[in-house]
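Entry 12.
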Amino acid sequence: MREILDFLSELHDNNTREWFETNKPRYRRVLEQHNDNVVRLLELITEFDSTVEGLTVADCTYRIYRDTRFSKDKTPYKDFFSVFIARGGKRSGYGGYYLHISPKGHTWGEGSFLAAGNVAPEGYVLASLREEVEDNAPMLVHNIVASGFVLDSSNALKRTPKGYSVAEEYEYLLRQREFIIARSLTSEWFLEPDWLERTAELFRHCKPFLDQTNRAIEYAYEEARK
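Predicted 3D structure (tokens):
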């Protein structure tokens, strides 16, 4: 992992096409290492979550090339590696297990972090998730706390949406626009020989949270198909 971390750190400081082309052999080498890690992580997660069985590396990873057409940030490459392991693959809309490897600055700390959940759900899916809060808020809070992760409220609404009824202590859950839990990691985490096994073990504690939120997502999909 040291080679991967060093490459990403240097890419962060030299995010140009010229530097990347010069270092493309290094990129191919670290990408192969990263993909091998993804294969192993998939195996470990499948041991406790059968919904992700059969996924491939391509189902869970992303291109390093950035789409800069509509962004003020014109740097051409992502300076991180990320993995999203979810039922049906990264574009399924279901919540899953997310690994973000980035040696330099990010909201959740030094750069790297783990997360579980789903990003930017469709309106009808978010409505179903809020109905789950309405019906089972204590269970959701329990599953969040038991995971050892923290609820990400950085994208939450300032006001509680109308049309729902929960105890005041749970209103913050209704204000969520995304149901994501996360925890930060330091680069040292990846330098231990068993980091993949320890990462999978942390994700294992997120499964009840994902089971609950994915049940609401599945219900939304079923209702939409009627």
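Annotation: Helices lie at 2-13, 17-22, 24-46, 123-147, 171-174, 195-204, 207-225. Residues 4 and 30 are 5 Å apart (CA to CA).
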